[in-house]
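HUMAN: Mind making up another protein with tokenized structure?

ASSISTANT:
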Amino acid sequence: MVHKPEKLILAIETSCDETAAAVLRFQDSKAWPRLHTLSSVVRSQIALHAKMGGVVPEAAARAHVKNILPVTEKALKDGGIPLERIDLIAVTYGPGLIPSLIVGVEFAKALALASRKPVLPVNHMAGHLYSPLAKIESLQLKPKDIFPQIALIVSGGHTLLVLMQNEKRYKVLGSTVDDAAGEAFDKVAKLLSLPYPGGPEVSRLAAHGQASIEFPRPMLHQKNYDFSFSGLKTAVLYHVRDRGPKLSPREKQDICASFQNAAVDVLVQKTLRAAKEFRAKSVALSGGVSANTLLRHMLAAECKKNKLEFFVPEFKLCTDNAEMIGIAAGFMLHNGKKPVKPKVVRAMPGLNL
């Protein structure tokens, strides 16, 4: 690919149940990449999976096959950029549901071969990791003002605590040993017979309830930075069983509030402990659960109390989307990563950061 000071990125994301495409303009600079989103299109499958009570991988893949071309065409049209002007195609290669990943990866490869464009495979979790830094260049902050940074990534399938030494170097400090935080929210919703998607519904009810039930805070006082939410979910299960099959609306609200407080307490306290140990200058929050109002407010308040910069993406970048994949691609280019030929890209379901 001929070196250009400015590049146009077409990003594609199909790791789970959202079909997404975005077009971004990337300009490199000494301190930070400059990224401007020209378009972002997300086609949700919530209505489809609500009928089944959760995401069914084969059904998700079939929906991706149906949606991927029109979504990509709309992203190019909305961005006012024809395919021939695109410089590279960024695509999520993992982690995620393998049938869904295959659709996005193979589509990106076919499009790249037909248009003679290189491909930049992007780790889905890197998309979440870099999403809070999307507007960093416009804030006129220097790397020394931000790093080291502790990044908390909280989603339906993953809970990760990451130490970022700078925008190029990072390592995972801890992750979930069983259920991820978002998965626990969804399972609690099922225990309470709440509609799909369950996580937002738990948060909605929690806003009207009292955190009056003492649920456990798993692994809170262990010296490592791993997480466990299976025991918390089981505690909710036993509590619901003890109360009988017919819970009142008020009881459900209190259970949701108590569960949410326990989960958020663990996430916030472990993040702040890591920030103190590694002398972080900032904390970043991302992933689908970063849209949770209580988590945002509590972590922001603790960062302010401890004089830490706090970064969190706007709500549209919290759930799965292609814009964050384009943002990660921009940082990867800034860090010296080179695009590759389409034939070497493979869908890899189990890879983390």
